[in-house]
């Protein structure tokens, strides 16, 4: 362990009433700092030189008083004064270099930590995001990382610089007058006592404040998007929402006041101790000077040195409190980095290469993972009870030949969308297997598998960016001609061309500036740009009116042509032409066959179809029962 991290280790380890900071956290902080060890060495060398230069002026003052002034030697006085100026300039330059080292190290570590955190969260399974409050997660990635950043860029330099300065100052004082030095050191334990109590309290306050800030971020994230704002307005709950937010904000305010008072009391105590120590040194040293035991120059030099001792000592003690608060930030960041990822590439995973796109499902059963398998408890509002062992899908056996269409229908909650998530390996099967072109998807890299699959869901997501940016999410290097071709096939080109800014038009958050049909057709255009071997449609037309559905159906015909497809249908008209239709009920295959065969079988599919036909005869919008 290096000198800087060793000091942080010592400062974060404490007893008494304050909670101990985990040794694992300290080790992991140092693991992130290890690539910068050469810069850490340069930083320490600079600090040592700065500290040595810091004790030179007091020694020069002694020579000025006892030598140049006593002997009335103007030439010597000028030389010594010039040396004081040179030492001050050198000290200033080294201080600047010292700050550059500490900032470079701290910002570099935080950069690595921030990127590692973002990368890890992106790779977590979908179950993590279904259980996690978005605002609380964003707070971890922003506020907590910033808290750690302040510690490394500021506290690290303070701890190391003041630690070395204190050591060099004590050594110099001993060389000048050991009795006054011992008197000055008698007060050192009193500097530690307040920190032992205040440090733990401030760490607890910091942790509570971060949790409350995360809660407020979660509330703002949910209420200030379009859907959340609309819901609050429609139910007229503005007053209740404001009251709930104000209660949490009030608690943060109270915590801030309490933290400020603790910090101020702590600083006052340290200042009083420093003043007491300085007064004791001057009284004792003055008595010795009166008795002739020491010179006036030595007393003046010791007075300056004792200030240089108590100043860094007070900052070190205060930095200890900052270190404890900083490690709270690190703990919260590492908690997210430690979030389990049950869906990860196998060590020997291979890339899936483009092919015909055949799918085989054998003995497939699945249950959703519990909180301990794919979540961070502190990022959830409340712990929701899991249903361990409850299978959502049970013993499915299916095969889709290359270029064929499989239709999937069934009541709500029968497992249709779950099947789509398993095909794209957003989750891993609990039992059984899924193969694409004869390869188990768990033996393939996730990136290569998903590059071969295109998905359009019932609520197509668009980023708050331009139409062009959203389309190029599928292929960043796509040309305007390729965008035109995809949009033409998706029956959306005329809409884009009518917009004043064309592909540079911002779509708004989640694409709210576009109609539902326009969003779906843009999603289909994005899929066509991706040019996948396999297409999955998850109720892609369920929320559309008749006119928009017709346009989307035309676009889907282009998307499905020549591709293996799995179509999860809300409206049964979507899968009338499927090569095979399976009807799921309570996670099992209840029926399977072609459309005409299933209609004549008189089972669940026939009931659903008759409901659709009945609505059409009555002249209503053909919303079939939820299937």
* Integer average pLDDT: 80
Strand adjacency order, main sheet: 6-7-8-3-9-10
Q: How many angstroms separate the termini?
A: 61 Å
Amount of helix: 55-70%
* Biggest sheet record: 6 strands, mixed
Q: What overall geometry do the principal axes of the alpha carbons give?
A: elongated
Low-confidence stretches: 5-20, 383-388, 620-627
The helix count comes to 21
Rg calc: 35 Å
Provide the structure class: alpha/beta
Which percent band covers the strand fraction? 5-15%
- DSSP strand count: 10
Explain this structure.
There is one protein chain. It is built from 21 helices and 10 strands. The chain is α/β, with parallel strands linked by helices and 627 residues long. The longest helix has 54 residues, at 238-291.
Which terms summarize this structure?
single chain; 627 residues; alpha/beta; six-stranded mixed beta sheet; four-stranded antiparallel beta sheet; 21 helices; 10 strands; 63% helix; elongated; disordered C terminus
Secondary structure elements and pairings:
Elements (H helix, E strand, L loop, with lengths): L2 H10 L10 H11 L3 H33 L4 H50 L2 H6 L2 H43 L1 H8 L2 H36 L2 H10 L2 H54 L4 H42 L21 E8 L4 H4 L18 E8 L4 E5 L6 H8 L7 E6 L2 E2 L5 H6 L1 E5 L9 H6 L7 H10 L3 H6 L17 H15 L3 E5 L7 H15 L3 E5 L11 E6 L2 E6 L1 H7 L2 H14 L10
Parallel strand pairs: 3-8, 3-9, 6-7, 7-8
Antiparallel strand pairs: 1-2, 1-4, 4-5, 9-10
Helix pairs in contact: 1-6, 2-11, 3-4, 3-6, 3-11, 4-6, 6-7, 6-8, 6-11, 7-10, 8-10, 8-11, 10-11, 16-18, 18-19, 20-21
């Amino acid at each position: 362990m290096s000198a800087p991290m060793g000091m942080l280790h010592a400062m974060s380890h404490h007893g008494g009433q304050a909670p101990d900071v985990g040794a694992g956290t300290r080790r992991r902080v140092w693991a992130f700092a290890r690539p910068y060890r050469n810069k850490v060495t340069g930083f320490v060398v600079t600090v040592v030189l700065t500290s040595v230069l810091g004790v030179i002026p007091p020694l020069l003052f002694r020579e000025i008083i006892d030598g140049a002034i006593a002997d009335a030697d103007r030439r010597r006085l000028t030389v010594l004064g010039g040396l004081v100026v040179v030492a001050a300039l050198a000290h200033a330059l080294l201080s600047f270099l010292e700050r550059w080292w500490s900032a470079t190290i701290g910002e570099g570590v935080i950069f690595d930590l921030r990127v590692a955190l973002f990368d890890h969260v992106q790779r977590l399974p979908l179950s993590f995001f279904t259980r996690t409050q978005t605002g609380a997660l964003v707070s971890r990635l922003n506020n907590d990382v910033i808290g750690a950043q302040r510690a490394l860029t500021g506290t690290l330099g303070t701890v190391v610089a003041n630690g070395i300065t204190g050591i060099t100052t004590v050594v110099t004082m001993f060389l000048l007058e050991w009795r006054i030095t011992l008197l000055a050191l008698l007060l050192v334990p009193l500097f530690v006592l307040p920190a032992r109590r205040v440090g733990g309290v401030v760490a607890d306050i910091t942790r509570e404040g971060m949790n409350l800030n995360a809660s407020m971020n979660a509330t703002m994230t949910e209420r200030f998007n379009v859907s959340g704002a609309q819901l609050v307005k429609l139910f007229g709950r503005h007053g209740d929402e404001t009251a709930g937010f104000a209660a949490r904000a009030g608690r943060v305010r109270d915590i801030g006041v309490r933290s400020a008072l603790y910090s101020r009391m702590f600083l006052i105590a340290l200042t009083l101790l420093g003043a007491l120590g300085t007064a004791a040194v001057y009284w004792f040293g003055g008595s010795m000077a009166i008795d002739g035991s020491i010179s006036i120059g030595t007393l003046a030099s010791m007075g300056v040195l004792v200030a240089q001792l108590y100043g860094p000592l007070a900052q070190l003690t205060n930095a200890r409190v900052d270190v404890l608060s900083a490690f709270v930030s690190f703990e919260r960041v590492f908690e997210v980095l430690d979030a389990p990822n049950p869906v990860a590439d196998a060590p020997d995973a291979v890339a899936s290469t483009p092919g015909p796109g055949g799918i085989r499902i054998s003995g497939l059963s699945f249950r959703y993972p519990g909180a301990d398998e794919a979540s961070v408890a502190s990022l959830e509002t409340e712990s929701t009870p899991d249903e361990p062992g409850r299978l959502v899908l049970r013993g499915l056996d299916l095969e889709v030949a290359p270029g064929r269409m499989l239709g999937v229908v069934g009541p709500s909650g029968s497992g249709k969308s779950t099947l789509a998530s398993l095909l794209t390996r957003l989750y891993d099967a609990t039992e059984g297997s899924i193969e694409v072109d004869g390869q188990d998807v768990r033996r393939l890299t996730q990136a290569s598998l998903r590059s071969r699959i295109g998905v359009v869901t019932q609520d197509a997501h668009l980023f708050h960016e331009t139409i062009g940016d959203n389309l190029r999410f599928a292929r960043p290097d796509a040309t305007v001609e390729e965008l035109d071709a995809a949009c033409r096939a998706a029956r959306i080109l005329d809409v884009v061309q009518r917009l004043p800014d064309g592909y540079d038009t911002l779509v708004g958050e989640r694409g709210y500036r576009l109609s539902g049909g326009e969003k779906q057709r843009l999603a289909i255009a994005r899929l066509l740009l991706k040019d996948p071997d396999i297409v999955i449609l998850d109720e892609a037309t369920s929320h559309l009116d008749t006119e928009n559905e017709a346009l989307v159906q035309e676009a889907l015909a282009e998307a499905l042509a020549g591709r293996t497809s799995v179509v999860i249908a809300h409206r049964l008209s979507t899968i009338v032409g499927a090569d095979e239709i399976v009807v799921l009920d309570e996670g099992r295959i209840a029926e399977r066959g072609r459309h005409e065969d299933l209609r004549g079988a008189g089972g669940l599919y026939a009931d659903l179809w008759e409901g659709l036909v009945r609505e059409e005869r009555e002249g209503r919008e053909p919303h079939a029962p939820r299937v």
